[in-house]
Amino acid sequence: MDRLSNTVRPYAWGSTTLIPELLGAAPTGEPQAEMWMGAHPGAPSRTGRGSLHDIIGADPVRELGRPALDAFGPRLPFLLKLLAAGAPLSLQVHPDRAQAQEGFAAEEKAGIPLDAPHRNYKDDNHKPELVCALTPFDGLCGFRPPAEAADFIAGLDVDSLKPYVDLLHAHPEEAALREVLTAVLSADPEEMAHTVAEAAAAAERLGGPYAPFAGIAHHFPGDPGVIAAMLLNHVRLQPGEALFLGAGVPHAYLGGLAVEIMANSDNVLRCGLTPKHVDVPELLRVVRFEAGDPGVLRPEASPSGEELYDTPIDEFRLSRFVRPEGAAPVDLTLPTPQILLATAGRPRVGELTLAPGESVFVPAGEKAELSGTGTVFRATVAV
């Protein structure tokens, strides 16, 4: 197995303290947003044998095992991250696999460069993701029922928002949400900026359930995404709780430290809270206008002590072990590749002791035993 050295991405929304605190390191003063663990070509983990991307490419059968290789090809199909949000991320959705394939092919045919700012599809894969809180973690996930969204927005008592309230009351669920999101994102920018400013002042004054949206508006003054965000469920995860984000589900992370795992893709369609490109027609093609409970996940325990976060995705499988003092060793050997990440204590994987934030890659079929005390997240595939 290989101890991993991982890249920390300094995105502007990153916390300056959360990842350093986990690692027991001094903050640098710069944002530290994501630590990537995997073989993504943009920032592959490094080992004593070279980059994980190159190691897998050189011998995919040995590193991935035949089940994963047959299912996903010669690449690690997931990316594991530590995610530390100090400010809201963009409001966004991800396409399903068919939408990604169609969109990628169309943009390739049109000759749009992969790095063009108006490019929507960087690859032809879907990007489901699972986020599991390590600290209290705030986010937005999925649409509120239209009547609930209408009451919430009406509570701000802003005249220019009243047409949206009427639309939410006047149509069937899907049509109501579609019409309001379209209207918000297509509104005159100057008029919308004024509306957002009034809504933000009201949210600041009212506090309570409106407080998160006042915070969003503070980071993105005048952005129509502030009003779009009010259509969504606000969720506060406690440590150990998780959210699964499937295709077409609008979401944004607002603050906190979490473990995140996703299928390997860079496809993001933005709805707001960003200076980046927002392609409204393509966004409306991908969004699923379905209201409902965001579905907070809690892990399901097994006799071995493994706690599984159950999701309908084959590209990744996330579980954790919370090991008290004196816990018996556990055999982790699998016919699929694994990344093991410690988040508390000083657990051992084989002969390697892991401090919080340290991780190892275990090739398919290689014997791995977990011992010691602490918390370890296990990422693998579900084949």
The parts where pLDDT drops under 50 for at least 5 residues are none
The structure class reads: alpha+beta
- Described by the principal axes of the CA atoms, the overall outline is globular
Largest sheet geometry: 8 strands, antiparallel
How many strands in all?
23
Quaternary structure classification: single chain
Q: Average pLDDT, to the nearest integer?
A: 95
Describe the structure.
This protein is α+β, with helices and mostly antiparallel strands and 383 residues long. It has helices at residues 18-23, 52-58, 60-64, 66-72, 97-109, 146-154, 162-170, 173-186, 189-206, 211-219, 225-229, 280-286, and strands at residues 2-3, 7-9, 34-37, 46-47, 50-51, 78-85, 91-93, 129-133, 137-143, 232-237, 242-245, 251-263, 269-272, 300-301, 306-309, 317-323, 330-331, 338-345, 348-349, 352-353, 359-362, 369-371, 374-380. The strands form five sheets. Strands 2, 3, 6, 8, 9, 10, 11 and 12 form an eight-stranded antiparallel beta sheet that branches. Strands 1-21-18-23-16-15-14 form a seven-stranded antiparallel beta sheet, with no helix packed on it. Strands 17-22-19-20 form a four-stranded antiparallel beta sheet, with no helix packed on it. Strand 4 (46-47) and strand 5 form a beta hairpin. Helix 6 packs antiparallel against helix 7, helix 7 packs antiparallel against helix 8 and helix 9 (189-206) packs across helix 10. It is globular and about 65 Å long. The mean pLDDT is 95.
